[in-house]
Amino acid sequence: MTNIYNYSFQELSDYFVAIGEKSFRAQQVFRWLYQKKVNSFSEMANIKKELLVKLEEDFALKKIKIIDQKKTPNAQKYLFSLSDEHKIEAVLLKQNYGYSLCVSTQVGCAMGCLFCASGPMQKKRNLMTYEMVQQILLIEEASGINITHVVLMGVGEPFDNYDNVMKFIDTINNPYGMQIGARHITISTCGLVPKINQFAQSDKQVNLAVSLNAPNNELRDFLMPINKKYPLEELMISLKNYYQKTKRRITFEYIMLADVNDHDKHAYELVKLVKDLNCYINLIPYNKTEHGQFQATNLEQMKQFYDIIKKSKINVTVRKELGADIWAACGQLRVQSEEE
Ligand code: SF4
Fold first, then answer.
1. b/e for 221-251, b at 16 or more Cβ within 10 A?
2. Domain extents for the chain?
3. Is 218 an annotated catalytic residue?
4. Helix 264-274 to helix 232-246 angle, to the nearest 10 degrees?
């Protein structure tokens, strides 16, 4: 039976029209699901009885389950079990502008980035839209917190699950859904060029971040195998086209790995690479994982790297290490659980 959280607003409207109802029923049902957050159809007080029976026949309301959580003052990491027993995770971060949730988009990941705890896990499958939406709903319910920002930076490559991710964005952004503003939603990609091109043509107003981590092909080929398929030249052309089409500033994420990508020469190369783009560079301190082969850049070198970029008039920040002890790197809580 189809899970109702898998249906976009448009699909639900079409469903109601197809069964001879008015399309405004979708507004009512979306409000019950995403604003009043009911757990059964019978709680939908303004829906007539016969229609409730029909909804119960046609849809499931089943949810994924929270099976573990770890907390620090600024971060909470949640582990979920899916109906096929796969595990996924999401991290809630307290920011000075509200609460931001880092959502997973796949079970495992096919991209194999060397610095990522999910890399060796390999992709098992894409997450369905309902499994992404419910990460937000369940964490809001468990924590009593209103999530104001969503970043698709958990386990998985969002553009490798493009259609489900786009539907997820529509639902959480919908005025009858969770009403999370498009500017408060960020998709992070490792650089799937054809999908960036497709995304540029969509009318989504959400932010785009690119996990860059290296300023030249040799180093990026080593750190991120996807670069062999879509090298930096192609990536930069697609990002320039994206900017021309959308006029939306791009964020580059750069995880600082000691003696790998953090030398002064890398900072100068990075400036040269991105200088023609309206962009923002986010330097991310690396959190060493148990299985990780890298070390974190020390503060002094990070400052020097930052200064080189700053002096070249490119917007740059260093990401605050919120809850580094539980964040570690994407996939770590799940890796631990599977080992146990
Ligand atoms: S960093 Fe992201 S894209 Fe790369 S392997 Fe990890 S989850 Fe996948």
1. eebbbbbeebbbeebbebbeebbeebebebb
2. 2-60, 65-339
3. no
4. 50
pLDDT digit string, tens, across residues 198-239: 999 998 999 999 999 999 999 999 999 999 999 999 999 999
Residue 339 pLDDT grade (very low, low, confident, very high; cuts 50, 70, 90): very low
Ligand 1 centroid to residue 14 C-alpha, Å = 36
Q: Which member of 89, 131, 157, 253 is catalytic?
A: 89
Asked whether 108 lines ligand 1 (CB < 6 A), one says no
- Residue closest via CA to ligand 1's atom 6 equals 116
Q: How far apart are CA 68 and CA 122, in angstroms?
A: 22
Residue 328 has pLDDT above 50, yes or no: no
Q: Which of 85, 109, 330, 340 is catalytic?
A: 330
65 — pLDDT class (breaks 50, 70, 90): very high
Q: Is 109 a catalytic residue?
A: no
The third-level CATH classification (topology) of the domain covering 65-339 is: TIM Barrel (3.20.20)
Equal CATH topology for 2-60 and 65-339: no
Ligand 1 in reach of 113 Cβ (< 6 A): yes
Stated as kind and residue range, the H or E segment containing 335 is helix 332-339
- Is the pLDDT assigned to residue 333 strictly greater than 70? no
CATH of domain 2-60: 1.10.150.530
